[in-house]
Design the sequence.
């Protein structure tokens, strides 16, 4: 076909009516010319016209052949089918609305979840060659620590010795107190100058760090995030080289990052250089707190980099006592960021796909029911010459219209669902606030729509097109054979719907049981009426341990003077808020193990009234008092988990311990050969508190008075603490009074992360609540669709069996017998579907085991509950058409027959 023919065909398609008129006029002109030729031969006008028509043949067929030659016939037929299908669907508004809404539910749910999966798991980061980025970390497998940060010297050795990474950069989270204007807490990232070049990113405004700014003394520069720049500076471009008071020091603003840059997390407000003053103990080998990222060299695989890192870790173990048992490893950066989020999202995506499949089966059922009334129409078309392919194409065109309309409505529905996900999604999901409808999601919706058309449209079209046209034309179009085949297939569809619905209902039931189990877990404290907030004292303003302890002691004292306050305290860590750190744990007078075998314990510095404020029960001994201060005998309290592990057969009260390895293993780190790490005397045992979350078992913990926070090398009390405040009523009402107390002590000090303990507990369950909400929603949709499917089959069955049922009633059958007959059919389908679904659920729910707590994937109670709920829905769906069957008038039926 040349270009001229193509233009002609397209013109004929676009200007169809005019082209047809032109063709009719051209044929008429040719016919008239032939008639005139015949008249010249002596024939009359009438005979000449007959002769011209005989020569031309059937003018209708000639016109049709010309149309096919000049036009694009298949496209014309398709447009004709679509137009006819649209008229048919418009005539049957009820059927169309139900089918479109059913599809929209399935497609909308899938688009919303796919958008989340695409935004979190699939969308690349705005970094150069993301596939070459690796997350680096240390681990202590012997102590059950799969991942932890680097010590600065270890990371320096890894950088110098490795053969796999083109560059490595370090960073760690910090607190930033901003004192310009109203005090504000900001999330700061201390980062190597090489971090931004490693990621291949530049500042959108200004610049990032230079290598010289990693040197202490030159480090007072800051790069702002886009969100922080807009929030605090109103997106003012003249912000560069202005100063910002950070932790009591002046920093110069040198740059603003792009809007889509969020490394390493969603909440970073600003970046400052990572640097240490001379002699700072943050740069020792016993301080593992720095995160690291590396860029692989070209043609180096992640497996090679992992082997290289592991080998360097083994070398450092042999060279330094402090590295005993500590290994190094690497992982794909995206995998490390996504973490535990991948499996729950994939489970939700699978659940959404099941909802879509159920929706497609339901629409197929609707099409089968609709087809029973169209057999006569299609039989007439077939009798007039329409081939089976032509009929199938017509029916698929209608299905395509349904699929396209359902996709459009589904995408609109998904926009609303995505807003809900962004609004109520848990904070732990990375990049959640960036999800939305983009080209990938629209392509996915298109693919889902086409797949749906094939799933729900093909089988009814094939079944209807092969119906025997002779049988369909007899007796008003009833065809028992076709009806029987359609009935069997529809029963199969309903059984499949019920089976798939049971899988989702069981999954939702397992999550409900998990949520109930978590809700019954005792966190080990009294969460009601407990207010918490963070305070971080800047080193520039608070010099020496005495000023730090004085501040927190005075803060607790003044807070307890507020009317209605029962107790106030502070700790380096509280439940559900992170913080704290692990230390070696040695018991005096016990044989010293090898360093790799020295146990670890969670180390907490707390003020005198912290344990009482938290409502943690005392098991043995006593709590700390106001007299346990610096200069008095060093004391400690352990939790019940530490007692069970370290003192299972004796009382720990009076035992002397210290939070470090034995001195014999630390000779190179001690200030003098005769130095002894200060011993602590255990004075009490308290109950276990679930710091890591309700799902995590309690770990051994060592509590020391904040004012006695002295361990080896004279490490003093922590300057960053989380304050807890117990009140007699709702703690939210006391935030203003609490802020006033803090401001009276230091007007430049902000309160960070203000939240009640109840709120923290709720947030710890946010991920579970999110999963439960979505999966329960999918299960409810599936349940409704399955009930609608059963209702449709039973209604169709009653309509087909109306003559039979009328005869039965006329011959004396009780109406209750008719009711049982219909209900038995529906319940039989339900039982078959439930047995199939139970077998399917037993296999698939095993994939959810990692998402469960306190319940097994094959939990019998959950399965029985799901079966009961589904059978109840099926019973309701059966009863309505069954009651209609009992009201059949036998005389009217016999008269119609």
Sequence:
């Amino acid at each position: 076909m040349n270009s001229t023919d193509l233009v002609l065909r397209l013109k004929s398609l676009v200007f169809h009516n005019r082209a047809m008129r032109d063709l009719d006029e051209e044929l008429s002109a040719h016919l008239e010319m032939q008639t005139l030729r015949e008249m010249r031969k002596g024939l009359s006008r009438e005979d000449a016209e007959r002769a011209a028509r005989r020569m031309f043949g059937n003018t209708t067929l000639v016109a049709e052949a010309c149309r096919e030659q000049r036009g694009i016939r298949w496209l014309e037929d398709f447009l004709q089918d679509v137009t006819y299908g649209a008229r048919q669907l418009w005539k049957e508004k009820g059927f169309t609305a139900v089918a479109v809404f059913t599809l929209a539910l399935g497609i909308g749910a899938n688009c919303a979840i796919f958008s989340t999966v695409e935004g979190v798991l699939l969308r690349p980061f705005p970094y150069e060659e993301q596939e070459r980025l690796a997350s680096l970390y240390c681990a202590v497998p012997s102590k059950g620590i799969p991942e932890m940060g680097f010590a600065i010297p270890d990371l320096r050795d890894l950088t110098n010795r490795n053969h796999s990474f083109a560059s490595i950069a370090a960073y760690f989270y910090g607190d930033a107190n901003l004192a310009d204007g109203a005090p504000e807490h900001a999330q700061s990232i201390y980062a190597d100058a090489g971090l931004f070049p490693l990621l291949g990113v530049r500042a959108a405004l200004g610049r990032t760090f230079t290598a010289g700014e990693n040197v202490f003394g030159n480090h007072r520069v800051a790069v702002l995030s886009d969100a922080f720049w807009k929030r605090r500076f109103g997106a003012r471009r003249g912000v560069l080289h202005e100063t910002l008071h950070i932790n009591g020091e002046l920093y110069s603003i040198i740059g603003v990052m792009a809007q889509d840059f969020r490394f390493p997390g969603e909440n970073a407000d600003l970046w400052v250089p990572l640097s240490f003053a001379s002699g700072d103990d943050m740069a020792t080998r016993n301080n593992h707190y720095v995160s690291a990222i590396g860029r692989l060299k070209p043609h180096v695989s992640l497996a090679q980099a992992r082997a290289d890192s592991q080998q360097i870790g083994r070398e450092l173990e042999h060279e330094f006592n402090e590295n005993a048992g500590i290994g190094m490893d690497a992982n794909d950066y995206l995998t490390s960021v996504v973490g535990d989020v991948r499996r729950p999202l994939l489970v939700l995506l699978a659940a959404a796909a099941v909802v879509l499949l159920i929706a497609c089966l339901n629409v197929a059922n609707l099409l089968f029911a609709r087809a029973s009334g169209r057999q006569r129409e299609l039989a007439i078309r077939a009798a007039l010459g329409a081939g089976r392919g032509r009929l199938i194409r017509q029916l698929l065109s209608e299905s395509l219209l349904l699929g396209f309309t359902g996709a459009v409505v589904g995408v609109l529905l998904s926009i609303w669902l995505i807003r809900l996900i962004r609004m109520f999604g848990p904070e732990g999901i990375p990049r959640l606030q960036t999800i939305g409808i983009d080209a990938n999601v629209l392509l996915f919706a298109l693919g889902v729509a086409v797949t749906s058309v094939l799933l729900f449209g093909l089988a009814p079209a094939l079944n209807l097109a092969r119906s025997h046209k002779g049988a369909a034309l007899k007796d008003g179009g009833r065809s028992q054979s076709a009806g029987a085949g359609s009935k069997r297939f529809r029963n199969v569809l309903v059984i499949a719907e019920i089976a798939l619905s049971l899988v989702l209902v069981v999954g939702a039931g397992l999550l409900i049981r998990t949520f109930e189990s978590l809700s019954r877990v005792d966190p080990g404290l009294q969460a009601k009426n407990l207010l918490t907030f963070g305070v971080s004292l800047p080193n520039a303003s608070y010099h020496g341990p005495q000023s730090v302890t004085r501040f927190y002691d005075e803060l607790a004292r003044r807070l307890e003077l507020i009317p209605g306050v029962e107790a106030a305290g502070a700790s380096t860590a509280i439940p559900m808020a992170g913080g704290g750190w692990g230390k070696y744990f040695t018991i005096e007078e016990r044989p010293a193990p090898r360093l790799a075998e020295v146990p670890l314990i969670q180390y907490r510095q707390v003020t005198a009234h912290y344990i009482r404020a938290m409502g943690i029960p005392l098991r043995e001994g006593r709590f700390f008092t106001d007299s346990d201060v610096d200069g008095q005998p060093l004391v400690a309290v352990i939790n019940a988990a530490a007692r069970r592990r370290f003192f299972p057969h004796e009382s720990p009260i009076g035992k002397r311990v210290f939070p470090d390895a034995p001195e014999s293993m630390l000779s190179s780190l001690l200030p003098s050969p005769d130095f002894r790490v200060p011993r602590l005397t255990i004075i009490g045992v308290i109950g276990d508190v679930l710091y890591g979350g309700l799902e995590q078992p309690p770990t051994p913990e060592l509590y020391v008075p904040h004012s006695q926070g002295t361990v080896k090398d004279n490490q003093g009390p922590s300057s960053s603490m989380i304050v807890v405040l117990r009140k007699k009523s709702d703690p939210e009402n006391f935030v203003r009074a609490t802020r006033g107390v803090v401001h009276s002590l230091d007007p430049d000090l902000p309160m960070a992360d203000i939240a009640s303990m109840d709120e923290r507990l709720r947030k710890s369950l946010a991920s579970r609540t999110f999963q439960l909400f979505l999966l329960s929603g999918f299960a409810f949709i599936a349940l409704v669709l399955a009930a609608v499917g059963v209702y449709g089959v039973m209604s169709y069955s009653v309509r087909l069996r109306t003559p039979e049922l009328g005869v039965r009633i006329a011959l004396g059958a009780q109406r209750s017998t008719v009711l049982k007959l219909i209900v038995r059919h529906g319940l039989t389908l339900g039982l078959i579907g439930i047995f199939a679904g139970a077998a399917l659920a037993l296999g698939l729910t095993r994939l959810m085991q990692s998402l469960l707590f306190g319940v097994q994937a094959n939990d019998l109670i959950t399965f029985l509950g799901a079966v009961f709920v589904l059978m109840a829905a099926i019973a309701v769906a059966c009863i309505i058409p069954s009651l209609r069957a009992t009201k059949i008038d036998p005389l009217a039926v016999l008269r119609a027959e």
Notes: The first strand starts at residue 133 and ends at 140. The chain has a mean pLDDT of 82. DSSP finds 27 helices and 23 strands in the chain. Residues 3-71 form one domain.
